[in-house]
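Problem 12. The chain below contains 197 residues. Write out its predicted structure in token notation.
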Amino acid sequence: MVVAALGDSLSGGSFIDGRYVDDPSASYPALVAERIHATRLGIVGIAGAVIQTIVESIGQLPRDADLLLVNAGTNDMVVVADGLDSLEQIRTNFDAMIALSRSWMPKARIVIVGLRDVACMDPDQMAGPHAIRRLRNAAEMHAAVRAFNEHILATPAATPVDLASREGSESVALFPDAIHPSPLGVRWIADAVLAAL
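Solution.
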């Protein structure tokens, strides 16, 4: 079994000792690969990246992947909430990324991991230097995430994983800075993915 993962910082690391650590070996795709006894794992997890940037690195993933984990769009939703791009354009970018992924990894089963609503968490409890404190447009962020998840989790011939409705989605223990998973959060995401397989 060859596993590939495509996404932003959630695919590329975790929140450890009060900060985000860019370490794919500590990410949820690595844990999923370990639990299903994958023979090989390729990860593209680009911290801070929007979908248009992530798509440029698909060619770094193994073409013979049997499973592709996709988790991208959190950074795009901040851009949408700030009025700097349209939700329609982000949906188009996501669909193009999935189409290119299918072309590059034709035999891969695609699992799409939906977004959590980072704006729903209490900013006063957040930890770390990059924690979300007060989103300028929290209401817009809520709406964008809901609409984006509706679209991406309905992607044809893909397995959806709805993190937003999963118990623990708003837990500071799992997501200390609102965005990045702690080691417990990594296990929480991996468990959600494994339950969908």
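Discussion. Helices lie at 9-12, 28-35, 51-54, 74-81, 87-104, 138-152, 183-196. Students who got a different answer should revisit the alignment rule from Section 12.3.
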